[in-house]
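Question (not urgent): is this output format expected?
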Amino acid sequence: MNVTNNIEITNECNLELMARYPDNYFQLAIVDPPYGIGESSNNNKSRSKLGKSKDYGNKNWDSKAPNKVYFTELKRVCKNVIIWGANHFVENIPNANSSSWVVWDKLNGNNDFADCELAYTSFKKAVRKFPFRWHGMLQGDMKN
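Got this back:
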C-alpha cells in the first residue's frame, strides 16, 4: 500500500472540491454539517450556568442544512461516510436506509442540549452506542 503524508488544507465550497475527485477516491469521510435547526450563540443565555458561555459570532451558521446534491456528491467520492446529525436531514441522503447508526450518549445531564447525537454510517454493522461526556467545558476524561 502506498501511503503519503501530504496534507492539503483548503477553504472552499465542498461541492467544488469534491467535483475534482473521481468516484470512491476517499476511503472515509466523517462530516458534521450544519443541522439546519437554527442553533446559534443567541441561545447562550439559556444554557447551563456551570460555566460562562462564549459568543463566537456567526449567529446564522446553523440556519440551513446541506441539500441532496451535497450528500450525493459526498457518497460518490467516498467509499464510506459517517454523517453526524443525519437525523435532521436524512431525507437529503441518498440510499440512507442503514442499520448502522452511531448513538453518542453525551452524558450531559439536565439542560436544553440533546442527550444524544446520531450519526448515519454507510457501514453494514449493528447500531453502536458511544458514551462520552460532553457538557460544554466538561468533557470526558479531562485529565487526559
